[in-house]
Amino acid sequence: MISAIRPSHALRVFALLMWSVFGGTSAISADSFAVHLPSHRAESAARLAIGLDQLTQRLEGALGGVDLQVEIFRKQEDLQAFLRDTPNVVLVLSEVSFLGGSPIELEPVGRFMLNGVGSYRRVVVVPTASSVQRLADLRGQELTVVRTASSLGHLAASDFNSELDPETYFSALRQVVDDSEAVTDVLFGQAAAALVAEHSPLLQDNLGSKLRVVYRGSPISLPLISVRSGAVDESSRRNLVAVLGRIDQGGGRSMLGQLGFEGLEAVRGTELSLMPSPSADAERALIPALDFELAEPTLPAKPSRLPLPYIMALPDPEPVAETLLDQTEP
């Protein structure tokens, strides 16, 4: 509850709530923590504001008591402009796809987790009454997608396993600002289908009754906390990674729940592991609607590591730091 927040942070929570509802930014008077989560699954703007305030307090402590001002963005183009024009941005919380189009260099230090892993899938949804039964039925039709900072070409690798080119497979890719808008368009007949996060609250509320899934995409990384390159010294960076690795202590799990996540793991530098893709048979069992064969991946002898930005970045099979889900609430 907001009433439980210390008075010194009540104003920040109120400001965060206003920004999360109405968008926009404030006058800059401190180091900035920029946030853009078009697929976030927080249950309400109030819970998001409270969770961000609590997270910011911990990040401030990890960075030696710096004063961080949170800036929430609904549109990724607004965040891009903010990063170009604001030299005092220290941290960014975003989808992994944003890193490919960020105007500044960002180095991930933490990744959120759900169900014990740091990845999720996007799905193609249609109305329950639609005649569409599989992805092939949408060929030549319009698909609604969430606008990202990266080129639309990233969809081919991140969501369609590089088996099709979305820009030619579909008649058009209609871009919207977030998952809620994409799902709403399908619900009200403004779109035949949409590609959205499987954990989208609006999708979950209507799945089965008004919406159904005809395709599940490849796993992609959950949102990342990144530090602006050169914004903090190495000692502060190491301390930040250490704090993220044990952030569930002292009420941290409640904080993560406010944000719609279950865990947070520290990640090493600018590298995230690439996990093997599921086999064609396994994928076909999940998605019987496919009209093409999915190629078996060629796997290296050891898990490969690729520098970000890389849209298919997934959890490390050998965790590089202590994760939240391995700890017990004190």
Please tag this protein with its features:
about 325 residues; alpha+beta; D-Maltodextrin-Binding Protein, domain 2; 2 domains; elongated; disordered N terminus; disordered C terminus
Task: Tell me briefly what this model is.
The protein has 330 residues and is of the alpha+beta class. The protein has ten helices and 15 strands.
Describe, in plain words, how this protein is organized in 3D.
The chain is α+β, with helices and mostly antiparallel strands and 330 residues long. It has 2 domains: 2-117 and 221-270 and 308-326, 3-Layer(aba) Sandwich (D-Maltodextrin-Binding Protein, domain 2), CATH 3.40.190.10; 122-218, D-Maltodextrin-Binding Protein, domain 2 (3-Layer(aba) Sandwich), CATH 3.40.190.10. The protein has helices at residues 7-22, 45-62, 76-85, 154-158, 166-169, 179-187, 201-206, 234-245, 252-259, 280-286, and strands spanning 31-36, 68-72, 89-94, 106-113, 119-120, 122-127, 142-146, 172-176, 194-197, 211-216, 220-221, 224-228, 263-266, 271-273, 305-307. Strands 2-1-3-12-4-13 form a 6-stranded mixed sheet, sandwiched between helices. Strands 9-6-10 form a 3-stranded antiparallel sheet, with helices on one face. Strand 1 (31-36), helix 2 (45-62) and strand 2 (68-72) form a beta-alpha-beta unit. The longest helix is centred in the N-terminal third of the chain and has 18 residues, at 45-62. The model is unreliable at 1-29 and 273-330 (pLDDT under 50).
